[in-house]
Design goal:
The complex is a heterodimer of chains A (about 375) and B (about 260). By secondary structure, chain A is mainly α. Chain A contains 15 helices and two strands. Chain A has a single domain (about 90-360), classed as ABC transporter involved in vitamin B12 uptake, BtuC, CATH 1.10.3470.10. Chain A has helices at about 10-15, 35-55, 60-75, 85-115, 130-145, 155-175, 180-205, 210-220, 230-250, 250-255, 260-265, 270-290, 300-310, 315-340, 345-365; strands at about 175, 180. In chain A, strand 1 and strand 2 (about 180) form a beta hairpin. In chain A, helix 6 (about 155-175) runs antiparallel to helix 7. The longest helix of chain A is centred in the first third of the chain and has 35 residues, at about 85-115. In chain B, the strands form three sheets. Chain B has a six-stranded mixed beta sheet with strand order 6-7-8-3-9-10, with helices on both faces. In chain B, strand 7, helix 6 (about 170-185) and strand 8 form a beta-alpha-beta unit. In chain B, helix 4 (about 115-125) packs antiparallel against helix 5 (about 140-155). Classes of the chains: A mainly alpha (about 375), B alpha/beta (about 260). The interface between A and B is large, with 52 and 58 residues.
C-alpha cells in the first residue's frame, strides 16, 4: 500500500472488543496443519483399504490379505488350497474397495465444486439431474438390449450416455446472456430430474420383465457390487483429473463465493469458470454413476464436514475432501456388504442412514454458517 | 493526468436506457463523487468500470485504453471495487477474504509472499479490522464486513478505486475515517454516495446523475446549489458554507421534500 504503517489509528487497538472470540467461534483454519492432516488421513485410508479387503462374508486376516496382494502384484505363487481365498481377495474385493476409494473421493470433490458453482449449500453432484438421466439410460439399455457392442459394459455405457444427455439439456436450458446463473441451473436441474424419472418409470412400466426394477433400484441406491478391474482405470483417470483440476481452481472458487460482481472486479471470469466447472463435474459424475449408481449424501455431507474441519478456503477443502470421502466410502461399503451378509444392503441406504443425522446435527450447530445465519 | 474516463458510456437493459452518453473523467489521485437520486444509474455506471457489465455504447478507458479489450485479470490489477454485494456464501475468515484481494496478482493457488502478508495486515489496520482477522466473515456486523471488503480492495494495490455506497452500514466515526483514508490514499477514486454533505467534504468534484444523464459536474461549491437539489433530488433545501471548512453543506428538514422530483426538461 502506498502509505506508511503509521497510518494505523492509535485508537484501533483500544476499540477492539475486550475479549477475543471464544474458543467455539475461533476458526479452525489458523491452527490447521495441512501436511500432518494429509499424512494421517492417507495412513487411515491405507489401513481402511487393507481391512476392507480382508473383511467380508469370508474374513481373511490382514497378514494373509497382504500376502495375497503381494503375490498378485509381484506375480508370486500361492498354494493350491489358497486359490479360492486369493480369488475373493484379488478378483472381487480389491477392485471393489478401490472403486469405493475412487468414487468416495470423486463424489466429495464434485460436491464441493457444485456447491460453489450453484452457490447453494444443499447442492450435491446429482442436483443437476445426472442420476435420473443415468438411471433412465441404464434401464433403457437393459430393456432394449441396445449398445450390445460394449459387452458387459453396455449398461454402464447407457448410464453414462443418459447422464451426459441430461447434463447437455440442463446446460442448454439454463444458458442465458449472462452465462449459467446459479439459481437457473438448480431449477433446471431439478426439473430435468423429475422429467427423466418419469421417463424411467414409463420404461419400467412397459418393460416385459421384472429385471428392469432391480436395475432401477441399483442405479438409484448405488453400490460397488458390479466392480471389476476392467472399469477401474477409466474411473481412476477421471477421478484423478477431477481432483487435480478442481484443486488448482481453489482460489478462483474462493473468489466465486464472494459473488459474481466481486469476482469480475477481482479478475475472475465467472461465465468461463462456471462453464468449465459444469463440464468437468458433469463428466466426472457421469463416469462415477455409470459404474456405481447414484450414491447419495456423500457429495452433500462430505463438503460440509470437511469445511467444518479445515475452514472454507477451497484449496484446503479440496485437499482433505478426497481423502475423507474415500475413507467414508470404504467403510460404508464394508457395512453394506457385511451387516446382513451374505445379503448386501444398497449402499445408498447406509450413506443416508449416516448422512442424514450428521447433516441435521451439522445444520443445527452454532457457528457453522453457509449463506448466513 | 486522466487515469479513468467514461467516454459517452451508455447502458440499456431490455431496451430501457439506464445510462445515456455519460462522459466523465477521473484524474490521477482525484476523488470524484457520483451522486443522484435512486435509479439514476450510478451503480450501473460503476458496474461498467469494474466490469460486471458490458456497456452497450461508448467505452470505459483506463490510461486511454478501452477496458473491454483488456483481459479481466489485467484490469483487476489496476481497478479495484467495493460492490454492493456484501454477502458471501462461505464462512471465510477475515484475513482470508482480505488476502483474496491479491488474486489478480497471483497465479493459481500461489501463496502470498511475506510482503503481501504485510500488505494485508496494513490494510486491515487502516480499516480498523485487524482485531477481527481470525473471525468468520459471516459472524460480523454489516459495518465491520464493509470495512473488511474495503481492506480487500486496498490490497489489490489498484490505481483506481471504485466504491459503490462505501458508507453503507458504517457508523459516523467509520464513515469519516473511510472517506479521509480514501482522500489520503493517493488513488484515483470514483465513489457513489448518498450523503451529500459527506460527498461535498470528501470529493474534489461531484458528478450529478439524473435519469441516466449527467446534469452537473464540477467542484462541490459549484455543483451543490439549491436549484440543483430541487431539480435533481426533489428537495427544497438550503445550502450553506461549512463554518470551519467553507465546503457547501445541505440543510433540510422534514418539510423539504417537494411533492415530485423535479423534471429537468
Amino acid at each position: 500500500m502506498r502509505s506508511s504503517p503509521g497510518t494505523t489509528s492509535p485508537t484501533s487497538e483500544a476499540q477492539a472488543p475486550p475479549a477475543g472470540p471464544g474458543p467455539e467461534a475461533a476458526p479452525p483454519a489458523t491452527a490447521f496443519a495441512m501436511p500432518l492432516t494429509v499424512a494421517v488421513l492417507a495412513a487411515v485410508l491405507a489401513v481402511s483399504v487393507l481391512l476392507a479387503i480382508g473383511l467380508g462374508a469370508a474374513a481373511v486376516p490382514p497378514g494373509e490379505t497382504l500376502r495375497y496382494l503381494w503375490a498378485a502384484v509381484t506375480g508370486g505363487s500361492i498354494q493350491a488350497g489358497d486359490v479360492t481365498a486369493y480369488q475373493i481377495i484379488w478378483q472381487v474385493r480389491t477392485p471393489r474397495v478401490l472403486l469405493a476409494v475412487l468414487v468416495g473421493a470423486g463424489l466429495s470433490v464434485v460436491g464441493v465444486a457444485i456447491q460453489a458453482m450453484v452457490r447453494n449449500a444443499l447442492a450435491d453432484p446429482f442436483v443437476l439431474g445426472v442420476s435420473s438421466g443415468a438411471s433412465a439410460g441404464a434401464v433403457l439399455v437393459g430393456v432394449t438390449g441396445a449398445l450390445a457392442a460394449f459387452g458387459i459394459y453396455a449398461i454402464s455405457a447407457g448410464a453414462f450416455l443418459g447422464a451426459l444427455l441430461v447434463s447437455a439439456l440442463v446446460y442448454l436450458a439454463a444458458r442465458g446472456a449472462g452465462g449459467l446463473t446459479p439459481l437457473r441451473l438448480v431449477l433446471t436441474g431439478v426439473a430435468m430430474a423429475f422429467g427423466f424419472q418419469a421417463v424411467m418409470s414409463l420404461i419400467v412400466y412397459f418393460a416385459p420383465d421384472g429385471e428392469s426394477t432391480s436395475t432401477v433400484l441399483f442405479w438409484s441406491m448405488g453400490g460397488f457390487g458390479a466392480a471389476t478391474w476392467g472399469a477401474l482405470p477409466v474411473v481412476a483417470a477421471v477421478t484423478l483429473v477431477t481432483v487435480v483440476l478442481l484443486r488448482r481452481l481453489g482460489r478462483s472458487l474462493d473468489v466465486l463465493a464472494l459473488g459474481d460482481e466481486t469476482s469480475a472486479s477481482l479478475g475472475v471470469d465467472t461465465v468461463r469458470l462456471r462453464r468449465g466447472l459444469f463440464v468437468l463435474t458433469s463428466l466426472a459424475t457421469g463416469a462415477m454413476v455409470a459404474v456405481s449408481g447414484a450414491i447419495g449424501f456423500v457429495g452433500l455431507v462430505m463438503p460440509h464436514l470437511v469445511r467444518l474441519w479445515t475452514g472454507a478456503a477451497h484449496v484446503r477443502v479440496l485437499t482433505v475432501a478426497p481423502l475423507a470421502g474415500a475413507i467414508f466410502m470404504v467403510w460404508a461399503d464394508l457395512v453394506a456388504r457385511t451387516l446382513v451378509a451374505p445379503r448386501e444392503l444398497p449402499l445408498g441406504v447406509i450413506t443416508a442412514l449416516v448422512g442424514v443425522p450428521v447433516f441435521v446435527v451439522l445444520l443445527r450447530r452454532r457457528g457453522y454458517l453457509f449463506g448466513g445465519r | 493526468m486522466t487515469s479513468l474516463a467514461l467516454d459517452d458510456l451508455s447502458v440499456s437493459i431490455d431496451g430501457a436506457a439506464i445510462v445515456e452518453a455519460l462522459a466523465l473523467t477521473v484524474g490521477d489521485g482525484e476523488v470524484v463523487g457520483l451522486v443522484g437520486p435512486n435509479g439514476s444509474g450510478k451503480t450501473t455506471a460503476l458496474r461498467c468500470v469494474y466490469r460486471a457489465l458490458r456497456p452497450s455504447g461508448g467505452a470505459v478507458l483506463i490510461d486511454g485504453r478501452d477496458l473491454a479489450r483488456l483481459p479481466l485479470r489485467d484490469s483487476a490489477r489496476v481497478i479495484a471495487a467495493l460492490t454492493q454485494e456484501g454477502r458471501t456464501d462461505l464462512d471465510f475468515t477475515v484475513e482470508e477474504v482480505v488476502a483474496l484481494g491479491r488474486a489478480p496478482h497471483l497465479r493459481g493457488n500461489q501463496a502470498l509472499s511475506p510482503r503481501e502478508r504485510e500488505l494485508c495486515r496494513q490494510a486491515m489496520a487502516r480499516t480498523e479490522v485487524l482485531h477481527l482477522a481470525g473471525r468468520g466473515i459471516l459472524s460480523l456486523s454489516g459495518g465491520e464486513r464493509q470495512r473488511v471488503l474495503v481492506a480487500r480492495a486496498l490490497v489489490q494495490e489498484p490505481r483506481v478505486l471504485v466504491l459503490d455506497e462505501p458508507t453503507n452500514h458504517l457508523d459516523l466515526h467509520h464513515q469519516i475515517r473511510l472517506l479521509s483514508m480514501l482522500r489520503g490514499a493517493g488513488l484515483s477514486v470514483l465513489v457513489t454516495l448518498h450523503d451529500l454533505n459527506l460527498a461535498a467534504s470528501a470529493c474534489d468534484r461531484l458528478a450529478v446523475l439524473s435519469r441516466g444523464r449527467l446534469v452537473a459536474c464540477g467542484p462541490p461549491a459549484e455543483v451543490l446549489t439549491e436549484e440543483l437539489l430541487r431539480e435533481a433530488f426533489g428537495v427544497a433545501a438550503s445550502v450553506v458554507p461549512h463554518p470551519l471548512t467553507g465546503v457547501p453543506q445541505v440543510l433540510y428538514d422534514l418539510g423539504s421534500a417537494t411533492t415530485t422530483i423535479g423534471d429537468p426538461t
